[in-house]
Amino acid sequence: MISRRFIIGSRKFENNLALRIRIQISKLLLKYVKKIMKWRKIQMTICHSTDTTFKADLKHEGLTLVNFWAPWCGPCRSFAPILERFDQEYSNVVRVLKINADEQPNTVAHYGILSLPTTILFKNGEPIDKILGAVHIDKLKQCIPDKNN
Hints:
By secondary structure, the protein is of the alpha/beta class. Helix content is 51%, strand content 19%.
């Protein structure tokens, strides 16, 4: 006959063992994720701007690509990965900003944004090109003056 004390003790052992296994698996996964991130050298440099910070964000010398979007906008959501890929390739040439049109109405009104997504390319704080809608990454690359040569 097995005593009740033995059964309770073995359950504690099983729980501790399961916990240790889960901790080891978590450590291994974290280790491999860090290696993958270093290997891919993922740089997320897209900045989210607001009405109050937009002028300061535009003072960046050189090219700045500003994307006006909204969370409810389907084309905006499909354009987001394209913009992220563009940012990974051109982060040393172009600074990318995103503005939520619902939360930042003053900036949207100032630039006359009537449809989403709208992307404006600025050079030294002045708008030089405007793209309406979700476009292919090649269209974004064509807008960059330094890369067309």
